[in-house]
Every structure is written in C-alpha cells, then in structure tokens.
Input
Amino acid sequence: MKHLLCTLLPVFFLQACKKNNGKPDTDTTYNITISTPGSEQGYLYVDGKYTGTLVPGTITIPTGRHTIGVALQNSWSYLRKEVDISAKSTVGFSLADKPVPKTWKALWIGLNETKENAAGSECSTHFSTSELDEAYNFFAWSLKEHFEKYTYGTTQWETERKDITTPIILSKESIGYTVEPSSITTLLPQIQPGIYDCIFVFWRESEGSCSFPGNYFGLAWSNPLADATKTGFVAVKFDAGNNIADKINDYKTNDPGVWIHEWLHTVGENFYQDVGLSLPEKESGFSVHAAETYHYTFPWMDWYRDFVSGRIPNHNGSPAYLGIGPEALLKCTVRETAAGSCK
Output
C-alpha cells in the first residue's frame, strides 16, 4: 500500500517520497574541519587518494561513509578513521589512530663469489663476510629511512639474510652481466610463492683486473606474480673500489636511492596497476623511470617519496595525483597475493 500511495499522489508529493527513502543524498557536501595531534601539519587523503590539501584545516567532503587519512609531515606517521559524513563537523585525529602496519618480508642475499664460467679459465669477484655486513647495513638503513618512512609507517619490513658461498655463475645479457633469479632459487629451495615479498641480491662488479660491466647499478624484475616464485627480485651490482664502506657512505650522501628504486620496479610497473591504482605514465617502458617527465630532479628522493605516498601531481588531468598511497600499502602484499591469503 505504501508503494501505491506514492504512485497515486500528485507530482510534488511524489518528489517528497523519493527524497525520504532513507538513502543519503550523495550530491550533498559538508565542510569538515580536520584537526591533528599538536596541530602538526599533514597531507590529507580521502578514500585512499591524496586531496592536495594540508591540514589542520577544512575540506568539503560528500555525504556518506569515507576513509579519512592524514600523513603527518614531521613525524612520518599515517593516521586514519572511517567516518560517516552527514553534517558539518570536526574530525579530530590522535596518535591512537595509527593503523597496524602491514608486514613485508624480504630475503637479502650477499654473494661471496661471482664468476663468468663454470669451468676452465674464469674471472671471479669476491666479497668477504665483513664487506657483506657493510652492504646489509646499507640495505637496512634504506628500509628505515626510505621504505618505511615514505610509507608513513604503514609498512614494516622483516628481513632474513642468507649469504651464498657457492660461486654464482653470471649470465651475459644485452645490458651486461647479470645474476639471474634461477641461479639463486636453485640453491635456495625455500624461495616459494607466498614466502617473501622481494629478494635482494648484492654482488661485486669488479675486483683487480676482473670486471663484469653492465649498463646498470641495480636491476629488478618488474612483474613478480608472472614469475614461478611469484616473488620480487632485485640485484645490486656494486663497484666497491678499494673500500666498500667509503663507497657506501658516498652513495648514502649523494645518491642513496638504489634499494627503493629497484623495489619500486617490482611493485610499481604491474602489481599496483593490476589492482586499479593510477601510477605514472611509463618512460622508456617503466613508470619508475618517469621522474623527469613529472619534473622531479636528481637524486630523485622526492620522486620516490611521492611515488610511494601517492602524491605525484598529474599534469595530464584526472586523477589529480598518482602513485601508491598509504591505504593501498595497508592492503595485500606481493606474497599475500601470491598465496591467495589477502583479506
């Protein structure tokens, strides 16, 4: 009878029936005031997308349920709330609004010896255990200062280290000598889908008269879920010179981004695009190489930060900003996707 009543009433009453059906009017917006702990300035996200707005401040948000997040500038923390917007109001954040970070798992592998041929006269390069300790500390430093920091604490990395003493035979490719994933996975059968999010391999480019040149510093395989192990794979070919500690300190001061650059290749070329995120247009085949296209400059650390946090200004229109973003990083990792254990 209620449906008949609406149908039989005059037109002006019919409009009232439509308005009072219990559903929110999604065309309505409200001015929402956002406050932060200690009034610390932060970048505002709504439903996972950067708004271009800094808070504390006021923003217009459509009625309905929304995820509101703030990436705090100085403390590098992300705060989030699920909020029902139905009237003008204030949304206040506290440090209790930090989400539980998503755990990513890395396997770091240091190679003691790399060589060109399996038998006969061959050239070899070597790293001692103490030199690999220096390299591992470089990696761990980058995890803290770049990977976790640029995600505003939405990720935490667990790392397992495994040095390989068996000589690794290099492959000769068009870009130079490389460590192929199969040369590692053959020796480490524990590398299986669902165990690691990324494998990081570190080896020596040259030693004395022996040299394995190549047109790269780091190398990454850009579609992990298409590989048999369904795991990201990164190799860093390091020219240690006469003192590896000095070389690492030079890179940390002047060009520190090799680890995060290569990891971004593993998730920023296919993985996040496949779940519907808008990432930068590819330059020479790779989104991570598009920094100059978007007017970023060497040593690119602002580029990596904005790539990870989803704040690259899009000069081609909609969406306004490109990249991954904290909300996406709180969701499924590579290994969880590989194992089908995403929630």
